[in-house]
Every structure is written in structure tokens, then in C-alpha cells.
Amino acid sequence: MDKPRRRRSRLRRTALTSTLTREPQPVGLLADRLNGILAGRGIDPGAVAAEPPAEPVTALELADARIPARYRRALADHPQIITWADHIAHAGRPGPSGPGIAEGPSLLIAGPTGTGKTHQAYGAVRALLTRGVRLRWEAVTTADLYARLRPRAGHDAERDLQTLARSPLLLLDDLGAAKTSEWTEELTYRLINHRYEHMLPTLITTNLPTAELRTTLGDRVASRLAEMTDRVILKGPDRRRHRSP
Ligand SMILES: Nc1ncnc2c1ncn2[C@@H]1O[C@H](COP(=O)(O)OP(=O)(O)OP(=O)(O)O)[C@@H](O)[C@H]1O
Ligand SMILES: [Mg+2]
């Protein structure tokens, strides 16, 4: 092992032993004992402490791992979405590794089934990443959201809701598609209201025509959406049934 590496692994072993012991003990002795135990089990202490080789991973590659396979290469080609991504990337506070994401407008991507709403929404997330925006984001369909937040033992639903509500960017897919109740209405209200008040960019997709937003989601949610979102209306056939050759 080269010298700096040996010193690093020794330092690491030292830190390990000093957190494990209660009585102050000579650290060198303990490290030697630990090495003895590892060697007795056929483990090379140097190999245990060695760092994995660093591989360069871009923010886009990391994001791709979280994007559902179907939308992993999605490109937002709608002009309004490109304009939105440019705006958000420009407005972000500058930082050492690219602009951050701050307050900004949200998008409501509406249209019938299969017109590419989810595709455009994930495309928008990817567009921000390719523009170098440092991004923490969450994505959830409303049906999954309600299932996730349903009260059950040993699960802190409130914390889950807060994570989504406070996420710097949220993709809320298929709003209005799940069965509603007073409980889902209240939950949607709390989520949207937090994002409305803090002006957090939110990508929302929905099958609902504008006129039905109020009756399905309730007036309080529809009113906030009207103010906080730019509308993107997608038209055309169901792309799932009319695939280009
Ligand atoms: N611009 C595009 N270029 C290539 N493929 C696309 C594009 N838009 C959508 N698709 C593909 O078309 C199919 C339907 O798209 P998507 O799932 O985004 O529709 P949707 O509007 O969200 O439908 P739903 O309302 O049922 O959720 C997917 O296979 C998607 O990958
Ligand atoms: Mg969809």
C-alpha cells in the first residue's frame, strides 16, 4: 500500500476505535488488536478501509436512476416547457456547482390520456438538470400519494407529506385521477397550499379539463392552481395506440 493511503486507512481505523471505546485507551494498541482480529478471520484490514474508486457521476445520471424506465430518456419538446425550464434555470440562485432552484412558476400540463403529459413532465425535470440546476426533486402520482399517506401503524404520514410539500421541485402526476373524498381533498389542499404559499415550482399533470378542476379538486385547490400555474394543453391522439413506425 502507498504511504498516504496507509496513513488514511490508519486514521480511519483510529476514528473507528475511538468511537467504540468507553475507557480512554492507547489507540495504537486497539487498532493493532482490531487488525489482529480481522487478520484472524482472513480479512485484510487495508482492504476493509480502502475507498472505492471514485467514478464521475453527473446529476443527470443520478436522476435517471430515479426516473421510471419509460421516461428515462424523455425530452421536453413543448415550447412552453422549454421556456419554463429556461426561466427556472435563470432565476436560480448561483452556487459553486451551478444555479440552485428557488421560487418560480409552476406548470399544469393538461390533456387527454396518452398525449404525453408525464413524458413532458419528466422531460422538464431532465431539462433543468441538463441546464446545470442543482436539484432536489420528488415525483409521485396522486393515487400513490393517497395510498402512501393513508394512516397506518408505525408510519409517519405527516413527515412524508412535509417532504413532498417542501421539496424544491415536485412532480405531481395525474392530479384528479384518483377517487376523491373529504380526506383526499384536505390532503391535496395542504400540499398545494404549501407550494402555493412558498412559490415552489411544481409540475402537475392532469386529465381534467379546466372546467372540471373546481368540481373534482374543490374550489380552494382550483383557485390556487389558477394563480400559481401556467397551463400547457396537450392535444392529439393517444400516443400509446398510435405509435410512430
Ligand atoms: N414527445 C414524445 N416523444 C416520444 N414519445 C412520447 C412523447 N410523448 C409521449 N410519448 C410516449 O407516449 C406514451 C404516452 O405518454 P405519457 O405516458 O406521457 O402520456 P400521458 O398523457 O401522461 O397519459 P395518461 O393521461 O394516461 O397518464 C409513452 O409511451 C411515452 O413514452
Ligand atoms: Mg401520465
Sequence-ordered SSE layout with sheet pairings:
Elements: H1 3-20, H2 27-40, H3 45-49, H4 59-66, H5 79-91, E1 106-110, H6 117-130, E2 137-141, H7 142-149, H8 157-166, E3 169-173, H9 182-198, E4 202-206, H10 210-217, H11 219-228, E5 229-233
Parallel strand pairs: 1-4, 1-5, 2-3, 3-4
The chain binds adenosine-5'-triphosphate and magnesium ion.
Provide keyphrases for this structure.
245 residues, alpha/beta, Rossmann fold, 2 domains, 5-stranded parallel sheet, 11 helices, 5 strands, 51% helix, 10% strand, globular, binds adenosine-5'-triphosphate, binds magnesium ion, AAA+ ATPase domain-containing protein, IstB_ATP-bd, AAA+_ATPase, P-loop_NTPase
Heteromolecules bound: adenosine-5'-triphosphate, magnesium ion
Major sheet attributes: 5 strands, parallel
Query: Treating each run of at least 4 consecutive H or I residues as one helix, how many helices?
Result: 11
Q: What is the residue-averaged pLDDT?
A: 84
Helix content: 40-55%
Name the CATH class of the largest domain.
Alpha Beta
Q: How large, in whole angstroms, is the Cα Rg?
A: 25 Å
CATH topology of the largest domain: Rossmann fold
Number of domains: 2
The percentage of residues in β strands lies in: 5-15%
Q: Write the H/E string, N to C.
A: HHHHHEHEHHEHEHHE
Which runs of at least 5 residues are low in confidence (pLDDT < 50)? 9-24
Q: How many DSSP E strands?
A: 5
CATH architecture of the largest domain: 3-Layer(aba) Sandwich
Q: What is the SS-derived class?
A: alpha/beta
What coarse outline follows from CA principal-axis ratios?
Answer: globular
CATH superfamily of the largest domain: P-loop containing nucleotide triphosphate hydrolases
The separation of the N and C termini measures 57 Å
- Strand order, sheet with most strands: 2-3-4-1-5
